[in-house]
Write a structure and sequence with these properties.
With 127 residues, the protein is of the alpha+beta class. It has helices at residues 36-44, 57-62, 87-91, and strands spanning 2-6, 12-16, 20-23, 26-29, 46-51, 66-67, 82-83, 95-96, 105-106, 111-116. A hairpin with a 2-residue loop joins strand 3 and strand 4. It is globular and about 40 Å long.
Length: 127
């Protein structure tokens, strides 16, 4: 799963996420408390979840061990992370505007959900 949030400078933050539980229009997300995504969501209260199919495995792999934050936080290089400015370009993904939230969505992901932290209302695009 890939999650989009908005960085403070207005650029999109695309991050991997492996822990999510969805039931109806609600989702419980497992995120590292100190992550850029968590900070962004705390500030904007919005995100877009992109659910890639097996056909996008290569794109997902190209995002492994990349981070959009510069400088890279001290502990991340020890795990092999490196800074990449526009991770979605590196992965060969196409960004398109969401319908009701500010974060973009990945055109190649045909299953996605946008929402807010107040209650997970379906505020974005869903197919």
């Amino acid at each position: 799963m890939r999650i989009f949030s908005d960085n403070e400078n207005g650029t999109p933050n695309l991050a991997p996420m492996s822990s999510a539980f969805c039931l109806g229009s609600r989702a419980l997300l497992g995120l590292e408390a100190s992550s850029q995504t968590t900070r962004n969501m705390s500030r904007t209260r919005q995100c877009v979840l992109n659910l890639p199919s097996v056909d996008l495995a290569g794109a997902v792999d190209r995002l492994a061990l990349t981070i959009g934050v510069d400088p890279v936080p001290e502990r991340k290089p020890l795990c092999g992370y490196r800074h990449v400015e526009a991770k979605f370009h590196r992965a060969g993904l196409t960004l398109v505007a969401s319908e009701t939230v500010s974060q973009p969505r990945v055109a190649e992901c045909h299953r996605r959900r946008g929402g807010d932290r107040r209650g997970g209302a379906p505020n974005g695009s869903r197919r």
